[in-house]
Amino acid sequence: MSGQTLSFYITLSLLAGVLIPIMAALSGAMGRTLGNAQIAALIVVTGAFLMVLAFTLATAGQGFDWRRLASASPLQLVSGFAMAFYLLSITYLAPRFGVGNAVMLVVAGQIASAAVIDHFGLFGAPHKPIDFMRAAGLVIMVAGVVIAQTAANNIKAQD
């Protein structure tokens, strides 16, 4: 992998990570404003659909052979349910539990599930076994997220 490709992947990953709590805060605020988390989530996912549709039509959509869809597994076809679950959950939780608390636990869950997926090579992911160093890094990442959010909650409690 070239340095330029690696830089692009890192930048794209970080940007996606930055946008997750922003989406959580905005969708949670919209749910609170509307008085209905489900309607807010529906509006957010409709916006997401429209963006993906526009991007697809502008780039890779032309010439797609829709017959290839038959080769996708049922699990692959319903993978969007995970996004819907996240969106519904975070839209409900953010104004009640706090964006930081909700995202902290989401990140901890992501770290754990990503490690398991990599370790076993699940869902076609590259097989990357968990050795001692990787396990230590995963524990440190989760601990860092928990410590940072615990500190934020303690500061808020003292105010």
Task: Explain the overall architecture.
This protein has one domain (3-158). Helices cover 79% and strands 0% of the residues. The protein has 159 residues and is mainly alpha-helical. The mean pLDDT is 89.
SSE topology:
Blueprint: H1 3-34, H2 37-58, H3 74-77, H4 80-97, H5 99-120, H6 132-158
Helix pairs in contact: 1-2, 1-4, 2-4, 4-5, 5-6
Strand content: under 5%
Q: In angstroms, what separates the terminal alpha carbons?
A: 49 Å
Helical content class: over 70%
Largest sheet: none
Number of strands: 0
Q: In sequence order, what are the helices and strands, one letter per element?
A: HHHHHH
Low-confidence stretches: none
Q: What's the mean pLDDT score?
A: 89
Helix-and-strand structural type: mainly alpha
Q: Please give the domain count.
A: 1
What Rg is obtained from the alpha carbons, in whole angstroms? Answer: 19 Å
Give the CA-based shape: globular
- The number of helical elements comes to 6
Please tag this protein with its features.
6 helices, single chain, 159 residues, mainly alpha
Task: Give a short overview.
The chain is mostly helical. It contains six helices and no strands.
